[in-house]
Design goal:
The chain has three domains: 8-94, Multidrug-efflux Transporter Regulator, Chain: A, Domain 2, CATH 1.10.1660.10; 97-176, Methionine synthase domain (Methyltransferase, Methionine Synthase (B12-binding Domains), Chain A, domain 1, Orthogonal Bundle); 183-305, Rossmann fold (3-Layer(aba) Sandwich), CATH 3.40.50.280. The protein is 59% helix and 10% strand. It contains 14 helices and seven strands. It has 314 residues and is of the alpha/beta class. It has a five-stranded parallel β-sheet with strand order 4-3-5-6-7, with helices on both faces.
Length: 314
């Protein structure tokens, strides 16, 4: 019995590759050879999808697509298994790292005691002493979530929250500026949609992007769709990333997202994350945007498609 064939759209959903990136990989590296329908549409077998999934895994670990494209599936599986083993070992080591908990507790205590100097020195020390992904994922991100949760519960004074967010913003700006993007880096525009006034999640995303080797154009909070699209065109961006925190007024945000996607070139990826992103899951799927639920997911997407990952779509 002949195995079923799958459209580009199905392949994109199962692998996480955009249609443009898939086409670029095929054209330059011949990673798979889809069959053409009578109308000229590309169709893929289960074996094609399996190979593409393996390539996504091994490039997500930091290898370039040009390096791994010539390998057979058995070699790719071996690499992926080795990467998973190393990742598991690293997780086990990091989960027992007392420095992470100490930095987080010291930072939270400094914010509670209205001590911006101690908070800033603690966060700078975490950024310098820990790997950037660990500092962002296990110190900065949890700190913001904890402050937000306590504020909503009435257990964190507003003035302390403003002091903490201003300090965190200052340190994240320093972390982002600290890294010079490679000459051949891809560009990402980062901000929040109109009426989304909290941009610290976007700043975290900007810091992740900078540490992943991307050139970052950070726009801050509350820009309408037409301005976001104009900024992306002016920056010759490869991606636009938005943070949505406030889940209120989903209809307005949904319209903004739809308009932005319609005004962006199809080659520009649209990434959306943040605590309020889940409220727009249907819209995001409809417009072909990527919903990323964590900084780790964003980092994986960026590393797979970054300056060392694959060519720009042609």
């Amino acid at each position: 019995m002949q195995s079923p064939l799958h459209s580009v759209r199905v392949v994109a959903r199962r692998t996480g590759l955009t249609p443009d990136l898939l086409r670029a990989w095929e054209k330059r590296y011949r990673v798979v050879q889809p069959v053409r329908s009578a109308g000229g549409q590309r169709n893929y077998s289960d074996a094609d999808i399996e190979r593409l999934q393996l390539l996504v895994k091994v490039t997500a670990a930091g290898r370039s697509i040009g390096q791994v494209a010539p390998l057979g599936n058995a070699e790719l599986r071996e690499l992926a298994a080795g990467d998973q083993s190393a990742h598991d070992s690293l997780d086990a080591t990091e989960s027992g790292n007392p420095a992470v908990g100490r930095y987080l507790n010291d930072a939270l205590g400094a914010a509670e005691h209205f001590d911006s100097n101690l908070l800033e020195s603690t966060l700078r020390a975490a950024a310098l002493q820990l790997p950037s992904d660990q500092a962002l994922d296990q110190v900065f991100g949890p700190l913001l979530l904890e402050i937000g949760a306590r504020w909503e519960q009435g257990r964190f004074p507003p003035a302390n929250g403003h002091l903490a967010t201003a300090t965190i913003r200052r340190v994240l700006t320093w972390m982002t500026d600290f890294r010079a993007a490679p000459e051949n880096a891809r560009t990402i525009v980062i901000g929040t949609p109109a009426m989304q006034l909290h941009d610290l999640g976007a700043m975290l995303a900007a810091t992740v992007a900078a540490s992943s080797g991307w050139r970052v154009a950070f726009l801050g909070a509350s820009l309408p769709a037409d301005e976001l699209a104009r900024a992306a065109r002016m920056a010759h961006a490869d991606a636009v990333a938005l943070s949505i925190i406030d889940p209120s007024d989903p209809a307005h945000v949904g319209r903004e997202l739809g308009q932005l996607r319609s005004e962006l070139p199809r080659s520009v990826a649209l990434l959306v994350g943040g605590a309020g992103a889940a409220a727009h899951a249907d819209v995001l799927e409809q417009i072909g945007a990527h919903r990323l639920d964590s900084l780790a997911a964003l980092r994986s997407w960026l590393m797979t498609r970054g300056q060392g990952g694959e060519p720009r779509p042609e």
